[in-house]
DNA sequence: TTGAAAGCGCTAACAA
DNA sequence: TTGTTAGCGCTTTCAA
């Protein structure tokens, strides 16, 4: 393993000078620097981040805790974040919350022990506030998609808006009896769009039951005779299965642009992942590098991807 | 940030003794140890892995490079591996290969710079053999799912076997004209199963075109009149879309048990992810801890999950 | 512009 | 059973 000492010897300078060659904005003779850099390259030198971290008490590493939702969408999130971090020379360390395995507590500990400079997580609630409060003082934190802690920065989605544009899209295509299969956090956008369009609301068309079955959805479709359907997250799957098994055509929009949604060419409410990742990483890096701790609470608007299912 | 020095002071012992309390199998008075551990807990002490790593030249970290395939399946792989690693007190650092972004080279550098103790990757070819060869001497490496480097340990899937059990399953259900939509790496199992069953092979029923379109599959179904279909990986999607859009029922098996396959209750060839993860982690940890470098080349057999689509 | 030296937190060899 | 001490590779202050 090649160290600065080796380079120093080869170049006939001290280790301090070698260190300077790798430290931006440090006073050093340009020629000496060039020589050092050249030798370093020849020797395949890579700075030891542990030695550096021990001195600077940072690791150039960001931790992320992936929640235990069955959402493959999170792989894209990881991918985008890691890509952005890489641009700044940072690395990503992940810890998963396991259904049958360990929980948020262990994941938080994993990240804490890793001495990551920052942590991104999606807490379901504030059950681990003891650990979180302790961590807050040691490491920069950011809540992603959820925000149960009021005093920690967050980047979340404007879910109500997402439902609204989906509903508006269907209305503008001439559909009025829109069946909504989802949860109550996002339904407000559905109501708003209908009201704005002056369409009377039929409460029967709104299902807020997270655990609704395919059978139930079929029943609803047959009895209520909707002209279009919006399915949210997991309920989108259930609704789409119901539609296909009924073998009918009915305009449909899915909330969350995941793999199978793209596959069946379904119109979807999507998250601008690259924008989110950019926001996250920018914020985190600025916190770390300026050692500042400005708090942000950003709300990002989803957008609609029109495909064939909503025609 | 609390250090062993602080604990040492509080306990009236030397830092060496505190260190011993945290080192397994080290000679220390049990009472002293208890006291130290108690104080450490009170103080929320967490060992500084960078200091420890600097001394021991290890990081208790394993790196993984996620290939740029659109395979959400990899999220499960990550999840399982991280879970196993956690049991051994190791962490997982990930680097993604980006289609439009950076490639394997950069990912390898990221992991190298992180000073991970081991690396799991799925090289497509040996294009970065220069870096890989250098890394080989610094870090334990394991090829997962692919194995272009002969001199690096690997854990891969028995894909031919997977196709074979899928075909056998259909045959045992009485189907003989089985349409195969996939690539040529796995088709051998299809041939074997048919031969073993004494069924004559109709080459028209075999499509090895990775880029086949939904239209083409429809055409094949209509003209060849198969009694069952096997779709592999991406081609499984195409085939299933063709089937649903034709609005017919035809027994179907998908290779790879991904999200949408489960969702539509499709019989699938699945990978025993927990077993794979267990194998990977066991191997890696044994390499790291024993500093040995026994090479393994494991081939893991997939299995069939029977669901409604193959009836 | 450079070098000497201290020290980041920890481990381990050696001495007591 | 415990303490002293050197040193892992690097950064940074201070002096030259």
Can you describe what's shown?
The structure is a homodimer of 311-residue chains. Chain A is α/β, with parallel strands linked by helices and 311 residues long. Chain A folds into three domains: 4-47, 434 Repressor (Amino-terminal Domain) (Orthogonal Bundle); 57-157 and 272-301, Rossmann fold, CATH 3.40.50; 159-270 and 305-310, Rossmann fold (3-Layer(aba) Sandwich). The first copy, chain A, is built from 13 helices and twelve strands. In chain A, the strands form two sheets. In chain A, strands 2-1-3-4-5-11 form a six-stranded parallel sheet. A six-stranded mixed sheet of chain A has the order 7-6-8-9-10-12. At the A-B interface, α4, α5, β2, α6 and α11 of A face α4, α5, β2, α6 and α11 of B. β2 (91-96) of chain A pairs antiparallel with β2 (91-96) of chain B. Chain A binds a DNA duplex (16 and 16 nucleotides) through residues 1, 3-5, 13-20, 22-23, 26-29, 32, 47-48, 50-57.
